[in-house]
Structures are given as C-alpha cells and as structure tokens.
Design goal:
The chain has 12 helices and 8 strands. The protein has about 250 residues and is an alpha/beta fold. The chain has an 8-stranded parallel beta barrel with strand order 1-2-3-4-5-6-7-8, surrounded by 6 helices. Helix 11 runs parallel beside helix 12. It binds 1,3-dihydroxyacetonephosphate.
C-alpha cells in the first residue's frame, strides 16, 4: 500500500548555517518521537551536501527543489540530477507552480527533468495544480490532466517511483487552504487518471500529497481523507516545531 509522506519545501529560504540548524533540530525531534510517516526535506541546492550527513536517513529523506533538464555541459548556473544525487539526496521536487510560472517550465521540459531524475536514482515529487481562474472556471480536472502528461509517458515501473503533489496555486502561501473535501475530490480524480493509464494497482500505490497553506491546525483533517496521502509543506516547514506538528497529524 502507498506510503504516507510529509515533505518540506524550503523554497529560497535559510542560509547554509540556518538550514543545517533546522535540519539538526528536526532530526533531534524525530529521533526522540519517531514519525508514523515518511519525512522528506527539500532544500536549496547549496544545502544538500551539508544537510544529508546531519540527518538520520532512516527517518528523514533529503531532496532538491529542482534539477536541470540537461545531462551536463555548458549550461551556466544549472545543477544536474547527477550532481543532486551525488550529495546523497534521494528526492527532487519537479514541476512546482513557482518553477512553471516564473521560469517557464513546460510539460516538455518537465518530462526531460523527470527522465533525468529517474535515470540518476532520484524520486521526483511531481507537482500539479490549477490557478485561481482555472478553479473558478471549473477547469481544475483538465488542468491537472494536461500537467500529468510529463509523467504519463513513463513506463509503469518508472511511474511507480513518482510521488505526486497536488498544489492548487491559489492556496500556496496565501493562507487559503483547499477544504478537505476539495482536496479529496481532486485527489480521487487524479488517482482515477492514474488508474486509467496504469491500472488500479499502480494508482492505489501512488502517494498523492496535498500542498498549499497546510499547517499543524489543518493537517489532520486534510490527511484524514482517503486519497490524501500527506503534504508538501512550504512556510510551515521552516520551523521545526510547525513541521513536526504536521508530521504528528499521522499519530
Ligand atoms: P505553503 O505551505 O507556504 O502554502 O507552500 C506550499 C508549497 O508551495 C509547497 O511546495
């Protein structure tokens, strides 16, 4: 059966020293009070090599927030999937709405990134989700279906390594969370799309996380829904106590 997962996305926050301190603090908390779910922290690239050795890998996985769509070479400023994996990181967030909106990442570019991540042994946390106008026009189902094209070209075996995160853009950093019912409805739809493509067993085994203003006070209600398998957490992942509060929703 699919894993329950709480993943943090630090985004462009924390300098190196602050990041190491946050990872250590979380590691200490979870060593004392073991989580009932998988825990992942996704950090800026420069933190990865320093954060992986300070966390107990049996409890906390580490991931990047992006990787390049090219293997290697003259791509100034880019960081390859192989480089990410060489730090000891095991995950990479791909397709985050901020990458799609601000850095023009398309379905095709993201398909390349997913392929390279998998080729280097990284598990993509692949994000999908509609903007407010699309939700208001009732188009959320078709939007997520179109975004899934980046991962629906994979073999069933490779698709089995993908973690999905549904993040309605209108709920990210806005304090406006999707209701548990809204989350359940679209998560169930996403799972039905997976079942249509790869069959029921693969669909049942896919973890689909919810992201968007998730906090300790609303996590339990969201995660109680049958198709919500955990969360991808932004702001509340920047404080160990808040992130732990969300992890504890599975207790
Ligand atoms: P917030 O939790 O800050 O709304 O961010 C969600 C997110 O974008 C996680 O990837």
């Amino acid at each position: 059966m699919r894993r329950k997962i709480v993943a943090g996305n630090w985004k462009m926050n924390k300098n190196l020293q602050e990041g190491i301190a946050l990872a250590k603090e979380l590691n200490e908390m979870l060593a004392i009070d073991k989580p009932n779910c998988g825990v992942v922290i996704c950090t800026p690239f420069i933190h990865l090599a320093s954060v992986t050795p300070v966390v107990d890998n049996a409890i906390i996985g580490v991931g990047a927030e992006n990787c390049a769509d090219k293997v290697s070479g003259a791509y100034t400023g880019e960081v390859s999937a192989e480089m990410v994996a060489s730090t000891g990181a095991q995950y990479v967030i791909l397709g985050h709405s901020e990458r799609r909106a601000y850095y023009h990442e398309t379905v095709e570019i993201l398909a390349e990134k997913v392929k390279l991540a998998l080729a280097n042994g990284l598990r993509p946390i692949f994000c999908i989700g509609e903007v407010l106008e699309e939700r208001e026009a009732g188009k959320q189902n078709e939007v997520v279906e179109a975004q899934l094209a980046s991962v629906f070209n994979l073999s069933a075996e490779d698709f089995g390594k993908i973690i999905l995160a549904y993040e309605p853009v209108w709920a990210i950093g806005t304090g406006k969370t999707a209701t548990p019912e809204q989350a359940q409805e679209i998560h169930a739809h996403i799972r039905s799309l997976i079942a249509g493509k790869y069959g029921k067993e693969v669909a049942d085994n896919t973890s689909i996380l919810y992201g968007g203003s998730c906090k300790p006070s609303n996590a339990k209600e969201l995660f109680a829904k049958p198709d919500v398998d955990g969360g991808l957490i932004g702001g509340a992942a920047l404080k160990a106590a808040d992130f732990k509060g969300i992890i504890d929703a599975f207790k």
